[in-house]
TrEMBL record:
InterPro entries with a match to the protein in the record: Gal_mutarotase_sf_dom, Glycosyl_Hydrlase_38
Protein name per the record: Uncharacterized protein
Source organism per UniProt: Phytophthora rubi
Top-rank taxon: Eukaryota
Molecular function via GO: alpha-mannosidase activity; carbohydrate binding
Length: 125
């Protein structure tokens, strides 16, 4: 089954990748649709405490649970999602090369720190 990945770079170009099932690395899928030509709508996470009558037939309350070993109890709270999307449109043939080359600067940025010679703590930029 083909998978699709989307990536956006700083020049706001859209990349659409479809794999051949032997070449594409797994990416966690969120959800996307193109309801209008020239637009892509991405759904990262949806949380509703009441049914919105859009087909599910129940509320959407995805939670995360942790076990607090000190208090010896489970803690459950509503999930909150934070993140960035990067889009870039390329052919399937060049897609992974483009994805790798544009992903590296996003995740492997150098950490720059400065301090004066007589200070103990550094200022991170």
């Amino acid at each position: 089954m083909p998978r699709v990945a989307f990536k956006i770079d700083s020049s706001d170009t859209l990349e659409y990748l479809v794999n051949d099932d032997d070449e594409f690395h797994e990416i966690e899928w969120m959800g996307a649709a193109s309801l209008v030509d020239g637009q892509v709508e991405m759904v990262v996470h949806r949380r509703l405490l009441a049914d919105d009558s859009n087909g599910v037939g129940e509320h959407l309350n995805e939670t995360e649970s942790l076990f607090d070993s000190v208090a010896k109890q489970h803690i459950t709270k509503g999930m909150v999602v934070h993140g960035n999307f990067f889009f870039n449109v390329k052919s399937a043939k060049d897609g992974m090369r483009s994805l790798r080359s544009k992903t590296e600067p996003q995740f492997f940025r150098p950490l720059t720190a400065y301090r004066k010679p007589n200070e103990v703590s550094a200022k991170v930029m």
